[in-house]
Automatic annotation (TrEMBL):
This is Calcium dodecin. It comes from the Bacteria.
Amino acid sequence: MSVYRVIDVIGTSTTSWEAAAAEAITTAGGSLHDLRVAEVTKQDVVVGEAGDLLYRTRLQLSFKYKPE
């Protein structure tokens, strides 16, 4: 049997929601091991003063829980 833990992470990108999701997974994968599932829970865009766009994707990531 396995136990999984779920956390929320938010990735950002100036190009797309997909790139923002990939950034969140890649960054989280640097410190979390055995990532299993990433579920998109929210997407939004921040519009800067100069009209520039920042795409944000919120994900729930699950990873295998390993007791210490």
